[in-house]
Amino acid sequence: MTEQxxxxxxxxxxxxxxxxxxVGAGLLGASIGHxxxxxxxxxxxxxxxxxxxxxxxxxxxxRAAHDDDRPLLVVVAVPPDVTADVVAQELxxxxxxxxxxxxxxxxxxxxxxxxxxxxxxxxIGSHPMAGRERGGAISARADIxxxxxxxxxxxAETPASDLALVEGLALDLGATxxxxxxEEHDRAVALVSHVPQLVASLLAGRFIDAPxxxxxxxGQGVRDxxxxxxxxxxxxxxxxxxxxxxxxxxxxxxxxxxxAVADALRxxxxxxxxxxxxxxxxxxxxxxxxxxxxxGQSRRYESLVVMVDDTPGQLGRLFGELGELxxxxxxxxxxxxxxxxxxxxxxxxxxxxxxxAEEGLLARGxxxxxxxx
Length: 373
Description:
Number of helices: 14
Order of helices and strands: HEHEHEEHEHEEHEHHHHHHEHEEHE
CATH class of the largest domain: Alpha Beta
Oligomer: single chain
C-alpha cells in the first residue's frame, strides 16, 4: 500500500462505520482491509489459513477477529468454490449484519444458497472489477479499487439500508457502484474478463516452444496482450468452471471469427479475402471505441513516444516538465528494448495540445522517438 494511497484515503469521510468483518485475507480481502483501516474503520480479519491471516495482520490489513465481535458488515472474500458455504455460515453467525461477497461469479453461489433454503434477506452479492496478477496478502494494496466499477447485485427484497451499506463500502474504497442482476453480471464478465484471460493464456502458451530470437522481438503490444497470462491457474479453474456457459458462448463466437479470418488468409488473393481481413480490423477499431476511458469518457487521445534514459529520476523529471508545460497525461505506457540503456514512454495527451507538448519537450532536450501524424 503506497503512502499516497493512505494519504488520499485519510482525507475522505468514511461512510462505513462500526466493525467490518472480512473473511478471507488474500488479495481482495486484505486490500479492502487496508483501505478501510486508512479511513479509521475497525477491521476484523478471519481466514481458514492461520499463516495467511498472520501475514495480512502483520502488513496492517486489520486485526484478528474476536468471538464477541458484532460487525455491521461482513465481506466474504474467499475462492468461488467455497463462497456459498462461507456466506451461509456468516449469515447464520451474524443475523443482524449485512453479508456481501466479492466473488467473480454471482449466479452460481446464489443458486446454491437458494437451493439450501438460506434466508438471503441480508445478503447482497457484489464484485469489484479489480485485481492483480499476483495474489495473497503480500500483494494487497488499498488503491486497487480506485476508479474501478463495483457491481452490486440486489433484488426486490433487499432493504434500502442494506444496499446503502454495500454501496457505501464501494464508494469508501474509491470504486463506482453499478447495479446489475447476477445474470447480467456473469454474462458481462465472461466477455470482458474471463474470455480475455483465456485468450491471453492461449497466446502466451505459444511462446513456450518459440525460438529465443522470436521472443527478443516482443514489443509492448504483445506484453499488453498477454499481461494477465501470469494469473494463478488454481483460481481461474474455479472461476471458469462456475461461469462456464456464458464463457462458452463467447468462445464459440470468437472461434467462428477466428475461423473466418484464417479462411480468408489461406487464400489472400481470393475475391473478398482482403475485405474480410479489413472488416475484422475495423470491427476491432469500433469495439475499442466503445470502451470507456478516463473518468468514463469515450475519447481519443494522441500519443508521443519519448526516449527516457534508464537512470533514476528521469521519469519523474519528464512528468515534472510536462506539468510545467501544462500538459495533463491521460495515459502512460513504458517499454524497454532488450539491451538498450533507455526506455520508451508512450504518453497519451489531448489532441489539441499534442504539438505544444512535443515542442516543449524538444526544447527541454527530450528526444521524441515518434512524432504524431
